[in-house]
Amino acid sequence: MEPISMANGNWRAALPALAVFEAAARHLNFSRAARELGATQPAVSHQVGWLEAHLGCRLFHRRHRGVSLTPEGQILFEAAAATRAAVERARDDIRALSGQRPLTVATDYGFAGDWLIPRLGAFAAAAPATELRIVASQFLADPLADPADVAILMGTGAWPGRAAHLLFRETVSAVASPALLRVPAGPADLARMRLLHLEPRHPAPWLTWRGWFAAHGIDRPPRPGDATFDTYSLVQQAAIAGQGIALGWHPLIAGALETGRLACAAAPPVTTGLGYYLLENPARRPPGLAAFRDWLLAACRDSEAAGLSPPPPSRCS
């Protein structure tokens, strides 16, 4: 195949594949890139393969549990990411000229799907003039990189150059389908059961099963027979389906507890020094920021006052 060249115009034909490559390189996972793009994993793999064939080099190392960038892939990703950021800044500038710029909120899949999205109707009623754009990713390297205006992340609260507002302390219970917890199960009982893990990141910015068991004085590393998922929504779905025991973050599991889809095991929850924080860049004051911050902080206080974060001990121990 003829290599891509700026001179012969073939770069235009590569633009769709470059967009797919950028998403795959940002997530380092073809399946997550496919979900973002509304495509299938084979379609992402095909586009990346087409681009590799035309460039005459490998862009990814394919590994059993994912992919990593080759040196050539890293060079292309840096260019593609810079282009994406520039285009999105231009889009936002154009919208700003016509008063249409949305407030972009970056967060993880769990907080977006289980807490924020169910409450967006209330925000729309409170601030009808503010348009939100939600950007969700399991791993955010820079929480306030373009195109995000604000971010909601789990961490210690120490992000240099960012104003951090605590929303919830990290409080985690062992949860499962009520059918799986007909007999009360303490930490030692849970250690013998099938565990559902959230795909790890090192260092993990949240409590892992190993850390949860350590807080109860038990060493329980991952074992064959456990299951691992790349988003928290899949962990919850597997737990609701009775496939094992999951870690449940309060208040993300409040809805599932209220409806009886999940129940807490007979083990005390674990509270860590981490928490969900709203992060702002003091140098940026986009329209709608104050309205969103004030609404979010009030909604989090209301959740705690209602006993949804964490739930009462009778429901969680």
From TrEMBL:
Stored Pfam families: HTH_1, LysR_substrate
Hydrolase keyword on record: no
Keywords: DNA-binding, Transcription, Transcription regulation
Gene Ontology molecular-function annotations: DNA-binding transcription factor activity; sequence-specific DNA binding
Domain HTH lysR-type: 15-70
One of the protein's GO biological processes: DNA-templated transcription
Listed InterPro entries: LysR-type_TF_proteobact-type, LysR_HTH_N, LysR_subst-bd, WH-like_DNA-bd_sf, WH_DNA-bd_sf
Presence of the UniProt keyword Plastid in the record: no
Family stated for the protein in its record: Belongs to the LysR transcriptional regulatory family.
Protein known as: Transcriptional regulator, LysR family
Species name: Acidiphilium cryptum (strain JF-5)
